[in-house]
Amino acid sequence: MEFGPNVTVFNHPLIQHKIAILRDKNTNTKMFRELVAEITALMTFECLKDVPTRVVTVETPLETCPQTMVLENSVAVIPILRAGLGMVNGVHMLFPTAHVGHIGLYRDEKTLEPHEYYCKLPDGIEDKLCILLDPMLATGGSVNAAISLLKNRGCLNIRLMSIIAAPEGIKNVVKEHPEIKVFVATCDRQLNENGYILPGLGDAGDRLFGTK
Ligand code: PRP
Ligand code: URA
Question: Which backbone phi and psi does 125 adopt, to 5 degrees?
Fold first, then answer.
């Protein structure tokens, strides 16, 4: 409850184990990508536990019974480019019908301010549960900008999933968008003077896509 009732910090040992390997500077791109997807899938299980459902009738080999299923078309995942892309497969492992929107933001290296360069959202986004994906929540500037953009498009039901967060970033998101449910796998110590999370894992985009 350190950050209030809308923030969930997973301290689950299975997630922590994967984060240990993810942080390691010797973990290669292939392994890094797989771990990001696996951690996201584990988080999705909790984040979507109240996803809209419907009841269908199923014929088993023995009899007919009512059974709950998730409501298709009710969820959209919105990765923040680039690094959020690495989390999409993790959601799709559990919820394959989730539609995907993309928001392109890059952080100015000096000012740390986010700049939007792309936005393409699924039709009917305003009626969907929108799960914003970004593995790194540093100052919170990028996520706050993405949430504001979604709100301007009429989205009322927005959640955030991040893998590693800085306390500063969580506090900024809660301050600017207090009603948003935030799910972070782990909360690190602090930001450094360049806005990188410590101990963190370095640059998530570069590690996912092998660009450095
Ligand atoms: C990284 C990361 C977040 C952002 C976090 O993206 O993936 O989107 O920085 O920082 P913030 O919380 O201080 O805004 P970056 O801008 O490096 O772009 P990239 O994913 O294309 O590498
Ligand atoms: N973006 C990253 O990829 N890593 C950080 O530590 C901060 C922002």
Answer: -55, -30
